[in-house]
Amino acid sequence: MKITIQTQITAPINLIWTAFTSPRHIPNWNFASEDWHCPWAKGELKIGGKFTHRMEAKDGSMGFDFNGTYRGIIPNKKLSYLIEDGRSVEITFTQLGKESIITETFEAENTHSEELQRNGWQAILDNFKSYVEKIAPDALHFEIEIQAPVSQVKKHMLDEESYRLWTTPFSPGSYYEGNWKKGSQIYFLTQDENGEKSGMISKILQHIPDHYISIEHLGMIDKGKEITSGPEIETFQGITENYSFSAKNDKTVLQVDIESVGEYKDHFNDTWPKALEKLKEICEK
Length: 285
Description:
Residues 11-133 form the Activator of Hsp90 ATPase homologue 1/2-like C-terminal domain. This protein is of the alpha+beta class and 285 residues long. The protein has 2 domains: 2-138, START domain (Alpha-D-Glucose-1,6-Bisphosphate, Chain A, domain 4), CATH 3.30.530.20; 140-283, Alpha-D-Glucose-1,6-Bisphosphate, Chain A, domain 4, CATH 3.30.530. The protein has helices at residues 13-21, 114-135, 150-158, 160-166, 265-283, and strands at 2-10, 36-37, 41-43, 50-57, 63-74, 78-83, 88-96, 99-107, 140-146, 175-178, 185-191, 197-208, 212-222, 225-227, 240-248, 251-258. 25% of the residues are buried.
């Protein structure tokens, strides 16, 4: 028997996807009642990747590991996995303007009643909705339509030469060192008049060609010195910056979503639209 539950969330789809799949976010919503919690989560978001969500009663009286294996991943659209006991779960993410519908279908087990299982899974999904809508106001979302195919938009966005051009609004002379492969460390940099580097230390969490890129920011470089702990980076360490590319007839819809960036919010609200317009200009030449 399969059971289907659903919720509707007011938040950008990229943020919803990130909050649902990131081990950094999962402990904040993955519990069915206030007397339970999810102390930690870990996993690798790839086909065949394993994950574990630790579920415990807050009084320490009981707990278990919820283990599974990812079977299907289409960022911002669909996720499926097998639970350790062999039951399947499928989640769809449907964007409807500023709203998104999350539909979750799972195979029931034989120990508990259908009602108890439905209510438990729905309670977790309701917690997810509340959590995402709580963090959404501090997140940033930018979107642009570009008259060019996805492959061309992505090429100009990531190639070293064109990257230096479209990122000028952030800081003249912006460039990167590293590559965009999943798992790679990448540095987003500028240099001062003395040749000293400053910028961000980051990691490519996910890269699905022509569809999706997720970047996690780990620290910063200040005049050549790497900083990966301390008060200087507390506002942004661990946040993700996500790009999604989707085809719309002969155009590309590029969406950029960034989690809360604290004091940098006004800066990015000003510079990201200018940078995307510059990228659009480059792609449409």
